[in-house]
Specification:
397 residues, alpha+beta, Butyryl-Coa Dehydrogenase, subunit A, domain 1, Butyryl-CoA Dehydrogenase, subunit A, domain 2, Butyryl-CoA Dehydrogenase, subunit A, domain 3, 12 helices
Length: 397
Amino acid sequence: MNFEFSEPEQRFIDRVRAFIAREAEKNYADEVMAPEREAHSQLADSPERREFCRQLAAEGLLGLSWPKEYGGQELPGIYDYFVNEELAAVGAPLIGKGIGIIGQTLIEKGTEKQKQYFLPKILAGEIEFALGYTEPGAGSDLASLQLKAQRDGDGFRLNGQKTFNTSAHFADWYWLAARTDNSGPSKYHGITLFLIPMDSKGISVSEIETMACHRTNEVFFDDVRVSAADVVGEVDKGWELMCQALDYERFTLFTYSPLRLKFDALVATLRDWKVAGQAALETDHVRRKLARLGSKLEVAKMHQRRVICAAAEGRVPTVESAMCKLYCTELGQEICDTAMDLLGPQALLSEGVDEAPLDGRWESALRATVVDTIGGGSSQVQKNIISRRHLGLPNPN
């Protein structure tokens, strides 16, 4: 297994870095490149960030792995990952759900009408999506979702609730999973995927503020009418498509660069820090802690490279991405925990408070890393995937 990038791959990475450097000179750079937003830096949730996505499109950095017949470049899927890794390194919006989860699924299972409408808009960076999966009683056990889609003539009527839908307050379209049949042989049957406008009559969005001070949402459906043309794939057979989409999400969204940024920030903070009157970096205790984290950071990078290698071989990196997501998000927590231990009570000071290390970033980062272990499938879900698909252990359910 070769973890080194080839010469063409490195040239491509240099090209992405050059694009980011040009964008960093623009007036909107402070809004667009904001690593302090933690995981929410990936969102195109402002006019400036949406314009940045259009610039990504103009640079030809969207849809790299798509077939040429749909406007793509037919490059290996790892090129999408290269783009996201470099964007994550500066806290810019990632290439997003449209290119991966929605776009790839539509290419494979969408109708011609859906492809003609959505794919050009996705490639142009002109459209944003929200994922409608989680419900109050269906989070880690996603197949237990109960939002009802009842037949109504040639369409359906939706009634129920979704929760923790992060992009619902600014998205244009909703990628929604609903229950169309309760009489099937298992809970995995009877789930259907829909693509519907977020401004559909009967949809209401209510804010939820997380412990990380980032917005997510509850979404309520009151007799929302959708047509048969809004169905993605086959009625009652949406579960497999959802699983494939979640694999792609873990592959692209959980990048290595934010971990490196956190570790480098901790080392930089400790350079000017004193412990009992002694320079922190000169104490054996601090050096051992940092050496341990540095070693784990290399392990995180290798997990990332294993995902890339699996994708390069044409496999869906289900197990590799679950391992990477689990390890990297929990390492993010450990880095912040270590900062709290080494910096002492001052690390608990919030942004804007005098004498707060890194202007309060450690306190906010600690809260954000807890949320990271939940999004895209909780740590417990990743462990179940690894135990079943890699170790061959029985399903705990």
